[in-house]
Amino acid sequence: MTALWRLTILETKMFFREKVQVFWTFLFPVLMIWLFGSMFGNQDYGNMTFASYFVPSWIGVNIVTTAFFTLGTVLTGYRETGVLRRYQSTPIAPWKILFAHTVQGTVIFSLSAVVLIVFGSLMLDLHAPRYLGSTLIALVLAVAAFFPFALFITSLAKNTQTAAAISSLFLNLMLFLSGATFPLDAMPNVLQYVAKILPLYYVIDLMRASWNTGPIWEHQTSALVLLGISVVSIFLASKFFRWSGKNE
Amino acid sequence: MEEVISVNNLSKRYGSTKAVNNLSFSVKKGEIFGIIGPNGAGKTTTIEILEGLRKKDEGEVLVLGMNPEKERKKLNNRIGVQFQATSIQKKMKVKEAIQLFGSIYDQNNTNNQIIKLLGLEEKMNKYFDDLSGGWKQRVTLALATLHKPDILFLDEPSMGLDPHARREMWSIIRSLRDEGTTIVVTTHYMEEAEKLCDRVAMIYNGELRALDEPNRLVEDISSQYVSFRSPDFPVEILKAMPDIMKVEHDELSDTIKVYAENLQSCSYLLFKEAEEGHYHISDFKFERGTLDDLFVHYLEGGQTA
């Protein structure tokens, strides 16, 4: 087996060895939806149901959690404890390490999405996405935007604690202000503008739309914004990639 | 003997502090070369420049005929590195780490002998994080040697090991040398330098203070002395004797150490004085200094050898 695949498989395996992380990634969103559902399940969501309004957006939230915690914070930890530096003195290329983590993150995120969808279908009468192709494209765009974005942001942190703090800040901001958990219409005008600065807003826009109302080309702005974030973040993340926290 | 590493006038600064200052030495094929010095002397900086992990400011460095900064990828295939702080993923099993690192290198002949030599078979299914310090060191040493590197860099390999584990580590390092690997090791344990290394470079404040075989270093005049115990011998008399370099008097144990150019004539005068003055001398010894003594000597004196 090549080093690339071995590392990818190992990183995925090691994720499941951290029980606390597994809980937060897979069960926390389910608990939240269940909780919100029991509080706001009977409200009016236009032509959408509670499930088709919130499950797609929580899938979007899961991309953020995976990006910041499973990828970003973990890699910052590797940088801090010298794991990356250890690789630096072997012939392995840096892109292989990032690739392994990206694949690992994608696998974990996909599993968490499946968990949410299964829960939604069984408990909340969630219907399948109306524009499945668009939903999948939206997910690919979201992953391509958020993974490098989180890798870049957390690489600015010197240690795991700081990276976790930065990640929590981003996650909470987006969780509450991007419309993922509370409907934006119910918020003051100012906050509705703030929402549009947050990248998650565009993910949720695409997810909800493709799940319920229309295909992705009816939401080109959101798709382009994500594509833009992706290109810029990949550039920044690779330009500022560091093997260790120390200077050379 | 063939040179595998040559360093000429190497300098490295961090801001305004000089970590390494005009350092020159060379390492011969198949030797255990020690870089010793107190914490912060520039050992790790030096070794990391050789590994291509840090950029030098001035000077020339050649490792296996390559420039470590420019040809790091190529060099990485032929060197093995063990860092000071052990560093692999906590939840990785020993077996998994060995398979992973084995697959990284071009050579597809994973050195299974090293696993036997280190006794790792019984720990293969343990998580790295669950191992004791000594076993962690063994695992990272195995990872550094799996691909049979030409040069092995060890940064403080016995730090945190108990005396028994340390001795085992030395014998493993020696057997790697006997198989033909050149080994560069940093340490601040003088005993380690004395017992393990074939040659030793002593650095302090980033400068080379001495470089030779350990037993030659301790033959240095400045590390030889006579010692004896006496409750009543007046130290002033000693200090007034000819050719005396230094007298150390430990009043708690009544031990006196005398450093002199000519220890034989110094001893003669010493006993003569004792007989005439009826002073008691016991436990008289000619001492051959250890690297420790030499080390302290350089630290205190600060002169260059």
Automatic annotation (TrEMBL), chain A:
Protein location: Cell membrane; Membrane
Pfam families: ABC2_membrane
InterPro entries: ABC-2_transporter, ABC2_TM, ABC2_TM_bact-type, ABC_2_transport
UniProt keyword annotations, A-Z: Cell membrane, Membrane, Transmembrane, Transmembrane helix, Transport
Membrane topology label: Multi-pass membrane protein
Residue ranges crossing the lipid bilayer per the database entry: 21-41, 53-76, 97-119, 131-153, 165-184, 223-241
Domain ABC transmembrane type-2: 20-244
Predominant location category: membrane
PANTHER family: DOXORUBICIN RESISTANCE ABC TRANSPORTER PERMEASE PROTEIN DRRC-RELATED (PTHR43027), TRANSPORT PERMEASE PROTEIN (PTHR43027:SF2)
Family membership: Belongs to the ABC-2 integral membrane protein family.
The name this protein goes by in its record: Transport permease protein
Originating species: Fictibacillus barbaricus
From TrEMBL, chain B:
Domain of life, source organism: Bacteria
Protein name (record): ABC-2 type transport system ATP-binding protein
Residues of the ABC transporter domain: 5-230
Gene Ontology molecular function terms on file: ATP binding
CDD domains assigned: ABC_DR_subfamily_A
Gene3D superfamilies: P-loop containing nucleotide triphosphate hydrolases
Keywords assigned by UniProt, alphabetized: ATP-binding, Nucleotide-binding, Transport
Record carries keyword Ribonucleoprotein: no
A Pfam family that the UniProt record links to this protein: ABC_tran
PROSITE patterns: ABC_TRANSPORTER_1, ABC_TRANSPORTER_2
